[in-house]
Structures are given as C-alpha cells and as structure tokens.
Amino acid sequence: LEYCALHCSGGASSHLLQFYPVLLKICQSQLSEAKATRSTEMSLQLLQLLLAHAPNVEALQQTKEVIVPLFQSWVTTFDPWATKSNFALPITTFLGLLGAWHACHPNDFTEHCLR
Questions:
Q1: How far is CA 86 from CA 33, 60, 66, 106, 110, in A?
Q2: Over 26-39, what HEC string results?
Q3: Is 38 in contact with 93 (CB distance < 8 Å)?
Q4: Residue in 56, 71, 79 with CA at minimum distance from that of residue 101
Q5: Does the pLDDT of residue 111 top 90, yes or no?
Q6: Nearest residue to 93 (alpha-carbon basis) of 4, 18, 30, 21
Q7: 29 closest CA partner among 4, 46, 13
Q8: Whole-model pTM?
Q9: How far apart are CA 22 and CA 35, in angstroms?
Q10: Whether 52 contacts 96, CB under 8 Å
Q11: pLDDT grade, residue 23 (50/70/90)?
C-alpha cells in the first residue's frame, strides 16, 4: 500500500500499470476472507488508490472487476438501521472506496448506480 501510494504521490502511477493484475488479485483474495481484518482494510485502501489513479481504461476496467461485486453486495446487504449489518466489510473504509470511485469516475459510478 505504501509503495503504491509513493508512486501515486510522486506522479508515477503509470509505473504501477504492470502490477495492476497482481495487486488486484491480492486485494481480491484478502476481501474474500470470511472475517474482516486489517488486511481487509488495507485491501480496500489499495483498491481506492488503484481506482483513483488508474492510468488507462484497461486498468480501470480491471479494478472495477473487483469493485463492482463489492458494490452489488453492499447494495443488497447493507442495512443502515440494523445494529449488525450483513455487510462483511468495514463500512468506513468501503465508503472511502465508493467516494473515490464517484469523485474520480463520476459517469462510470453513476452508470453502475442506475443498474
């Protein structure tokens, strides 16, 4: 996460393009764990970073392949009025991911909201 953040803050996010498939696979494996851990939060933060700094359409598409199922799960399972939600991911970190998607790719985000 810190390595990727350094590249993005230094304006070299395009260098990460070659690592997108591996980084996304790591995120996906961590997010598929039954119980949320610190690794879950870091994976969501890494997804947020990769999404916000996707250097091309292909990288964005690869990132969305991980994010869209999470979004669909949130839409169908999160209940803001429940004391314990069925949504397994840390909601604060997840909302940061959705916020990055909306802020950096608003048309794409809106398209998925309307589905």
A1: 15, 28, 19, 27, 24
A2: HHHHHHCCCCCCHH
A3: no
A4: 71
A5: no
A6: 30
A7: 46
A8: 0.84
A9: 22
A10: no
A11: confident
